[in-house]
From TrEMBL:
This protein's record includes keyword Hydrolase: yes
Gene3D superfamilies recorded: Metal-dependent hydrolases, Urease, subunit C, domain 1
Keyword Transmembrane helix among record annotations: no
Cofactor note (record): Binds 1 zinc ion per subunit.
Catalytic function, reaction form: guanine + H2O + H(+) = xanthine + NH4(+)
Annotated Amidohydrolase-related domain residues: 64-443
GO cellular component, one term: cytosol
Cofactors that this protein relies on: Zn(2+)
Species for this entry: Asticcacaulis biprosthecium C19
Originating gene: guaD
Listed name of the protein: Guanine deaminase
NCBIfam families xrefs: guan_deamin
Function (record text): Catalyzes the hydrolytic deamination of guanine, producing xanthine and ammonia.
First-tier enzyme category under EC: hydrolase
Origin superkingdom: Bacteria
Length: 444
């Protein structure tokens, strides 16, 4: 057995919601499977021994090591569309821009170019785990799994199900309900055949409007038998929220629950219109929410009541929601999560006085946003990543404040270590991320 490899430096993480911890001159040792086997501070027994035992790599002076980011909502095929078409309502955006783009993934050459670019981009942005919606296509979705495997990203991937002829265009729809269900089963079998714990299949009804009840029913059954993760969009915009009430006479949460699609492994994107009762159901099922503050601002007509959901016991992580959210750099979502919570708290109509203007006690701070982007996301997915603790996988990023092209401005003698972390989360750019590890392997 190989001796563990150790990293010496300053490690910062959020071991619980609302609290950060920075460990100076700390030695984190990682075994050949990428598992953290010890986290030793200079005053700990064994520190000196560990320093001499295996290979030790020192991080550059002034650098920070953070857990890799966990992006809970990425539409992989929409990567080419980032920064386009943000001015139309969700239902128009889907029909006129997004479905035609996603239909192009029947072309494997197009898929290969886009998916390779996407995974490279996300890894260099520090996204070590991504929960992906792919497209309805079997071959292209398998290709995405192959690319993640090859490049070393931790990825959960779903073949998207869209079989409802009333909502999905002829150019982009599963041929039949049976085809959609069989395609999902085949994809699950393919991913499991890869025999790699880093890549997992996800049952993925796009959202209720794009699926028939028969498909939702079948996917609920399938999720139960394969014990897979599940992802979908829920309580997202005025149009989508009303559509489900009109079709099923109840909310997304209640409907998905009836189809067996709310489990401990479910991730609902958005959730802006969740009622308190809906939140209680999600908390009882252990289902999580991917909070997507960027795309919510463009497409969702409301602000997700994040603080309320957390207080109700709903597990929440952050999603970039590429390309409804126009940034693949998860710190932009960290920043937007704080921002959105402040707007919700203060309110937006200056004709009204506080507190009538907003919803009191809705704000979160950067510590909570950092938690959501790391350990919170890992918790929603039940993955052993997101913090520097023994037993977790070493998925990490190195932030070098002095990197060429970086945007950080830290001053010795002025900024404390925690100030530095705060500044990283608010102001660092991609150039400041100089190394990325997944399962102990350097992938950037
Ligand atoms: O932001 C979003 N992106 C999508 O692709 C989508 N599909 C349904 N609802 C959606 N929302």
């Amino acid at each position: 057995m190989q001796r563990p490899r150790s990293y010496l430096g300053r490690f910062c993480h959020a071991p619980e919601r609302g609290r950060v911890e920075c460990l100076e001159d700390t030695l984190v040792s990682v075994d050949e499977d990428g598992r953290i086997v010890s986290v030793l501070r200079p005053s700990d027994d064994g520190y000196n021994r560990a320093m001499t035992e295996g290979p030790v790599e020192s991080m550059p002076r002034g650098a920070y090591v953070l857990p890799g980011f966990c992006d809970l909502h990425v539409h992989a095929p929409q990567w080419p569309q980032i920064g386009k078409a943000l001015h139309v309502p969700l239902e128009v955006w889907l029909q006129q821009h997004t479905f035609p783009l996603e239909a192009r993934y029947s072309d494997l050459a197009f898929a290969k170019t886009a998916y390779t670019g996407l995974v490279d981009d996300l890894l260099s942005n520090g996204t070590t785990t991504a929960l992906y919606f792919a497209t309805i296509h079997q071959e292209a979705t398998r290709l995405l799994a192959d690319i993640c495997l090859d490049k070393g990203q931790r990825a959960l991937i779903g073949k998207v199900v869209m079989d409802n002829p009333e909502q999905c265009p002829d150019i982009y729809r599963d041929e039949s309900t049976d085809d959609a269900l069989r395609g999902t089963e085949d994809f699950i079998a393919y991913v499991r055949g890869l025999n790699n714990d880093r890549i997992k299949p996800v049952v993925t009804p796009r959202f209720i409007p794009s699926c028939t009840d028969a498909a939702l029913d079948g996917l609920g059954e399938l999720a139960r038998s394969c014990r897979c993760h599940i992802q979908t969009h829920a309580s997202e915009s005025d149009w989508q929220h009303r559509y489900v009430f009109q079709r099923h006479g109840r909310s997304d949460t209640d409907s998905l629950d009836r189809f067996g699609l709310l489990t401990r492994h479910t991730v609902l994107a958005h959730g802006n219109f969740l009622s308190l009762g809906n939140m209680e159901i999600l908390a009882a099922r252990g289902s999580g929410v991917a909070h997507c503050p960027l795309s919510n601002a463009y497409f969702s007509n409301a602000v997700f009541p994040l603080k309320r959901a957390l207080e109700k016991g709903v597990r929440v992580g952050l999603g970039s929601d590429i390309s409804g959210g126009p940034s693949s750099f998860l710190p932009d979502s960290i920043r937007a999560a704080v921002f959105a919570s402040r707007l919700l708290d203060d309110g937006v109509d200056c004709e009204k006085d506080y507190p009538e203007r907003g919803i009191r006690d809705s704000r979160i701070d950067w510590r909570t946003a950092f938690y959501l982007a790391t350990l919170g996301g890992a918790d929603v997915l039940d993955l052993p990543v997101g913090a520097f603790e023994v037993g977790r996988q070493f998925d990490a990023i190195l932030i070098d404040p002095n990197a060429r092209g970086g945007s950080l401005n830290l001053m010795d003698g002025y900024d404390s270590t925690e100030d530095g972390l705060q500044k990283i989360l608010y102001t660092a750019n991609k150039a400041n991320i100089t190394r990325v590890w997944v399962a102990g392997r350097a992938v950037v």
